[in-house]
Design a protein that fits this description.
The protein is α/β, with parallel strands linked by helices. The protein is built from 14 helices and 15 strands. A seven-stranded mixed beta sheet has the order 3-11-10-9-8-4-7, sandwiched between helices. A four-stranded antiparallel beta sheet has the order 12-13-15-14. The chain has a two-stranded antiparallel ribbon with strand order 1-2. α1 runs antiparallel to α10, α2 runs parallel beside α10 and α3 packs across α4. Pyridoxal-5'-phosphate (PLP) binds next to α3 and β9. Pyridoxal-5'-phosphate binds next to α3 and β9. Pathway: Aminoacyl-tRNA biosynthesis; selenocysteinyl-tRNA(Sec) biosynthesis; selenocysteinyl-tRNA(Sec) from L-seryl-tRNA(Sec) (bacterial route): step 1/1.
């Protein structure tokens, strides 16, 4: 997380905090207040709240607005993400009735329209976070669903953005949250710790009346976050508001220019010029992939350092690095151990040098 987030957590953890105390009124306040103000400003939404993670957000929304009612979703968006979280399964747990429409590759507006009946509570969009459908495809936009719902004076439009982004990376197709809010969507949820680069959290934004209903739900207490999460999120959102994007490691690393990566490689290899050096290094062109399945198919050009040792094969090098005093997880590709300095900061370099020097 950003340095601001880290120090804010330390401050809140070791001191008194006014998390649930309203300093102006001198009485019990609400823990949502500060992050809500920041989120409204950053996304243009009417209201906001934070729960434990985005999985919790999806569950809370479905349970609150669609218990024993129908949720219409495209077959192309019935996704599974890492850790075996499935939209279809969480829906079942929430007691919402899944009404799947369209096909894996193509879903039309008439598919949604034909599914709407008096039992329909939500038309749901789910961002295909970790995969892509290409070729003969068709999907309906959130804006089109918003217009469709207007025609029928129901149901709610809810979009699960998965990662969500408060920053325009200008690559991949991660939607910028404020653009999604502009469509007039009722509710949006996304993770605090994927592309946002903050603490584990689920962020829910949207229409005030609906968010108020969520805040009052019994489950909100069950899914609520700790003061340290809120402190970290508040500081991270502050970075966004002040446009300090380079303070957020996720954005900084994804946007890092090649020349900076090359400089870091040089800083590292400079430590190995002596005669008893057993390491053989070679700089190669390669590509970085965004972690956690975010931005599928996007390869960011990078430079990697291919690492060889006079006496050890690649698998041995890879495992020794993992078992060093500071474990280093390198990339192993076609029997080559590769270090991508995009995610190795200049402060990390001396630590990595030490681990390398200890491997005989
Ligand atoms: C990651 C993801 C979730 C779950 O979010 P967590 O914050 O990891 O709980 C839900 N929906 C989609 C589309 C996702 O990509």
């Amino acid at each position: 997380m950003s340095n601001d987030a880290v120090s804010q957590v330390a401050a809140v953890a070791g001191n008194y905090s006014n998390l649930e105390y309203d300093l102006n009124k001198g009485e019990r306040g609400t823990r949502h207040k500060i992050t809500e103000v920041l989120l409204k400003e950053l996304t243009g939404s009417e209201a906001a709240m934070v729960v434990n993670n985005n999985a919790a957000a999806v569950f809370l929304i479905l349970r609150t607005f669609a218990k024993q009612k129908e949720v219409v979703i495209s077959r192309g968006e019935l996704i599974e993400i890492g850790g075996a979280f499935r939209i279809s399964s969480i829906m079942e747990e929430s007691d919402a009735i899944l009404k799947e429409v369209g096909t894996t590759n193509r879903t039309h507006l008439y598919d949604y329209e034909q599914a709407i009946n008096k039992e329909t509570a939500i038309l749901m969009k789910v961002h295909q976070s970790n995969f892509k459908t290409i070729g003969f495809t068709h999907a309906i936009s959130t804006k089109q669903l918003v217009n469709l719902a207007k025609k029928y004076h129901q149901p709610l439009i809810y979009e699960d953005l998965g990662s969500g982004s408060l920053y325009d990376f200008k690559m991949g197709n991660e939607p910028v949250v404020s653009k999604v809010i502009e469509t007039g969507v009722d509710l949006v949820s996304f993770s605090g710790d994927k592309l946002i680069g903050g603490p584990q959290a689920g962020i829910i934004i949207g229409k005030k009346e609906l968010i108020n209903k969520l805040k009052r739900h019994q489950l909100t207490r069950v899914l609520r976050v700790d003061k340290m999460t809120l402190a970290a999120l508040e500081a991270t959102l502050g970075n966004y508001l002040r446009e300090e994007f380079n303070n957020i490691p996720t954005i900084r690393d994804i946007s890092l220019p090649i020349c900076e990566i090359e400089k870091r490689i040089m800083m590292f290899t400079d430590h190995f010029n002596n005669n008893d050096n057993k390491w053989i290094f070679k700089i190669e062109n390669s590509a970085s992939q965004v972690g956690g399945g975010a931005m599928p198919g996007i390869e960011i050009p990078t430079l990697v350092l291919a690492v060889k040792h006079l006496n050890l094969d690649s698998h041995t090098i890879h495992s020794r690095l993992r078992q060093g005093t500071s474990p280093i997880i390198a990339r192993l590709k076609k029997n080559h151990v590769l270090l991508d300095f995009r995610t190795i900061t200049t402060e990390d370099i001396p630590i990595i040098v030490e681990v390398f020097k200890k491997i005989e």
